[in-house]
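Trying the structure run again after the queue cleared.
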Amino acid sequence: MTGLSYHSIAETWWPYVFILVAGWLPTDVWRWLGVLSAGRLDERSPAIALARTIATSLVAAVIGRLVLLPGGSLEAIPLGFRVAALAGGFAAYYWLGRQTLVAIVVAEVILLAVPWALGII
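Done. Tokens:
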């Protein structure tokens, strides 16, 4: 069956349409609204502080979830190495000039190279 209908879900192109409509379009609308309104907002306003707090909290929650309750291949790395990678990345961020990329590289080295060198993974 051709065309866009309920029965087209079995077609090979349907997942791409679903990703476009359900994933990209709603996200992109909010991004453009943010870009259009960003110039009019005061950086020190309580609303912006709240938005920054919520965004930071969400990132911290995702990182905590990945460290403490990982899924997939990250489960093979022992908890101590995951916590050490988090602490090492955090320390590198503060001690090496608050550079996010440097912190990520340090955490990745601790997370992957150290267990590999010790023969754990």
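Residues 44-121 form one domain. Worth checking whether this holds up in the mutant runs.
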